[in-house]
Automatic annotation (TrEMBL):
InterPro entries named among the record's database cross-references: Znf_SWIM (IPR007527)
Protein's name according to its UniProt entry: ZSWM7 protein
One Pfam family it belongs to: SWIM
Every SWIM-type domain range: 76-114
Sample GO molecular function, one term: zinc ion binding
Keyword Zinc-finger part of the UniProt annotation: yes
Length: 140
């Protein structure tokens, strides 16, 4: 979680991580604050985390991306380092209309990181490149 989010969002995610590390409890006590800060993305993102839909994909060089299995069954690639998701909602609601800080997929990535709930997948450099290029082909 770099400084790509507003400070209040960053602080909330840090609090969730700290509380989880100390008590191993989920996000129940933070649900109101999550809804307040992240709006309608909060509950669906929590559902994605509960379903263990977030996978951290790592290559031997250390390059990392996240894949999130959306509620529609489509796999989206997310980049927490630059706060970006390949889903249509991110492009429309976040980038075009500026109505939201992020989509449910990116929020699920941040929450999974905070809760230690990411699945891990190690792939070769070629496989990671294919994952990244597959997204571009889908858009083209």
């Amino acid at each position: 979680m770099d400084s790509t989010l507003p400070a209040v969002a960053e602080e909330l995610l840090k609090e969730i991580k700290k509380a989880f590390q100390e008590t191993s409890h989920g996000t129940d006590m933070f649900s109101f604050r999550l809804k307040f800060v992240f709006g309608p993305s909060a509950v669906p993102a929590l559902d994605l985390v509960d379903q263990r839909s977030v996978t951290r994909v790592v290559s031997p060089s250390g390059r990392t991306a996240y894949q999130v299995l959306g509620s529609s069954g489509k796999l989206y690639t997310c980049y927490s380092s630059c706060h970006f998701c390949t889903c249509p909602a991110f492009g429309f609601t976040v980038l075009q209309k500026c109505e939201s800080l992020l989509c449910k997929h990116i929020l699920a990535v941040y929450l999974s990181q905070a809760l230690g709930a990411c699945q891990e997948l190690t792939v070769s450099e070629e496989q990671l490149t294919s994952i990244l290029l597959a997204e571009e082909e889908d858009e083209g």
